[in-house]
Amino acid sequence: EVQLVESGGGLVQPGGSLRLSCAASGFTFSSYAMHWVRQAPGKGLEYVSAISSNGGSTYYANSVKGRFTISRDNSKNTLYLQMGSLRAEDTAVYYCARLFDSSGYPTTNYWGQGTLVTVSS
Amino acid sequence: QTVVTQEPSFSVSPGGTVTLTCGLSSGSVSTSYYPSWYQQTPGQAPRTLIYSTNTRSSGVPDRFSGSILGNKAALTITGAQADDESDYYCVLYMGSGILVFGGGTKLTVL
After folding, report:
1. Interface check B99 vs A, CB under 8 A
2. pLDDT per position in chain A (121 positions), as tens?
3. DSSP SS3 for A105
4. Is the CB of B103 inside 8 Å of chain A's CB atoms?
5. Which of chain B's residues have a Cβ under 8 Å away from the Cβ of A6?
């Protein structure tokens, strides 16, 4: 069974940093691209960042480019999101997700339960 | 910047049929965009209903169907039930590993 478990969320002051982690199990982690998707309170889903299976390619939404860094450790089956220069508008539930199949197409997908990040003084 | 458009809200009567649509700010949606539809209830992670235009995910009832209607992707719910009241998101694949989410449609069943 595919499982994605996020951790690392919490309350952080504006301008601060936070690192989210996502522990993956139930599939060959190193064969799949991985993603972070967020949802601000009462708002829709936003595609934040993506990383290829070997970590060689990354993607960032314009809203986080230059402030967030996605990475992965395939030996630990873990995905990370390093968030810096945090702003109030980064307040959201952050979901770790596997949104593509092993061929690189958006077919079946899996989501974690989400971790809440609150940016406030 | 590509914008994926969805109706902000829709309502359907129990047992009725509703079609939600997903368009592009410029251009037409085709199967090449691998349209997917996610369902999300409050406090829960999204759940995939449909991917690759019209393929139902495992366990999804056949009252949910996906298609291309004109220049948009469409999600049709036939015989709506009370627990279909959710937010529905369309997601399009832009290539190079990039997905774009629509703003979501809040469906009310009443």
Report:
1. yes
2. 999 999 999 999 999 999 999 999 999 999 999 999 999 999 999 999 999 999 999 999 999 999 999 999 999 999 999 999 999 999 999 999 999 998 888 888 899 999 999 999 9
3. coil
4. yes
5. none
